[in-house]
Amino acid sequence: RRKIIIDTDPGIDDAFAIIAALSCSQFEVLGITVVGGNNQLNSCVNNALGLVSLMDSRCPVHAGAPVSLNELRLGKTAVEHSTETHGKGGLGGVSLPGDPAGLSTVHAADFIAETVRSNPGEVEIVTLGPLTNIALAMERQPGLLQDVKCIWSMGGGVEKGNRTVVAEFNYWADPEAAARVFAQGQSTSLNMIGLDVTTKTSFSMNDLFFLKLEGGRLGKFFHDITEQYTRVYWERFRLCGCVIHDLVAMMIAIDPSLCGEGDVFPRVNVRIETEGMCRGQTLVDLHNHRDLRDLPRNASVYMGIDRNRYKLRFFETVFKD
Ligand code: BDR
Ligand code: CA
């Protein structure tokens, strides 16, 4: 089975992705490493523990960075990000009790560094939150990415942002961490799955009702955690339904064939802006500009997906696998 680490800040869409990963028969999820982001670290950790219990899994949960690299240096411990999208507690107001015994005493960054070191070339990391834990693991073990089989990262956007006009939330939340990971992207296979692809995949209200009616207790859970989230989508974007960003990255990791040849720009240059108004923006050289040719081709960038197969594959993974 494929060895997977999930780095995450659950989070409604993270919850979908974690459930898909824990349901996937191809995956051996070695650990869930948690970072502060959608909510304070302790809420995100509790949600991760709750999801592990919901899935009757024994996968360990590792707490990591509560805040970004810069904020850590300033001694901060609480994220200042608004929690309005993901609701109270981070799962749309749904409380999900977990077993505290599932929480490891090993810091997320140590777990990542150690697991990769002892399984060189075998571990895939799926990142669903700010990249702080990965950057800290790289600090603990320079050259770490050479031993990582690949990274599937939900973040960034070629054409748009969602936290600012140009920046997507995960990379905006810690641009220095994202910049460090992308700066070494050519040492591994780094896949950027950003807003360009995720926003092409909304779940409709019908999809969510279908889950509630036909999906048993997990289906009802998916429906309940998205109730408030869909209201936010309507108020903000006039979209009837919602986008489950992190699930898109996880489903592509599960089945890369969901994206056709024209959907992926393999090995292009991606830089992360860390200054000024565009802080957190991904600068993606999709078309190999002449002036930028000397820059490293450090990531493959996903721009599209077969959205119907994506949903079907999700239903199959969670309900049949
Ligand atoms: C990303 O930001 C978070 O709010 C979501 O969980 C997702 O990881 C989308 O921009
Ligand atoms: Ca997330």
From TrEMBL:
It comes from the Bacteria. The keyword 4Fe-4S does not apply. Keywords: Glycosidase, Hydrolase. GO terms for molecular function: purine nucleosidase activity. Transmembrane segments: none annotated. Residues 4-310 form the Inosine/uridine-preferring nucleoside hydrolase domain. GO terms for biological process: purine nucleoside catabolic process. GO terms for cellular component: cytosol. This is Inosine/uridine-preferring nucleoside hydrolase domain-containing protein. It comes from Marispirochaeta aestuarii.
